[in-house]
Write a structure and sequence with these properties.
Blueprint lengths: L1 E5 L5 H11 L7 E7 L19 E5 L5 H9 L7 H5 L13 E3 H12 L18 E3 L3 H5 L8 H16 L7
Parallel strand pairs: 1-2, 2-3
Antiparallel strand pairs: 4-5
Length: 174
Amino acid sequence: MTRYLVTPAAGFIGSHFVRDLLGPAGPPAVEVTVLDALTYAGDPTGLAPVLGDPRLRFVQGDITDAALVDRSKEAPVRPDSLVLDRGAPGAVHNVVGGTRLTNRELTGLLLHACGAGWDAVRPVEDRKGHDRRYGVDDSKPRRLGHRARVPFEQGLAETVDRYRRLIEHPARRK
């Protein structure tokens, strides 16, 4: 049995990671404990698809609470993870699927996802060494076995929607 302690787990990356672990493409025989304080960045709706899974245990709390973390580790789950095992410390893993877009194309996709028009864009002078196109290197996550599961445009729209909901989260209004 592989056991994971994921914290924070109700944010954008954590919730995707937990859903992947418990999903059909996840490792066999897995148990997951998630620990999250559910602050402005935490949104448990990201975990909704797996909240009823018997292999998942949700703990609301702060990772700075050492006693709570110890109890979470002593529960049936301890913190070991493919990410920790396979990822390089301090490395950036760009998970964009190798999508190549011009700056204008990407701006158009973002505007569309935000429900805004080109009138929201404020042109600026080109800077020295201006890049007209970005090709983000996704070789590191591919070496770890990552494959894009949705088209770039869909993932971008879902990311924008996620941040829109975070901005509207009640904890942010305090």
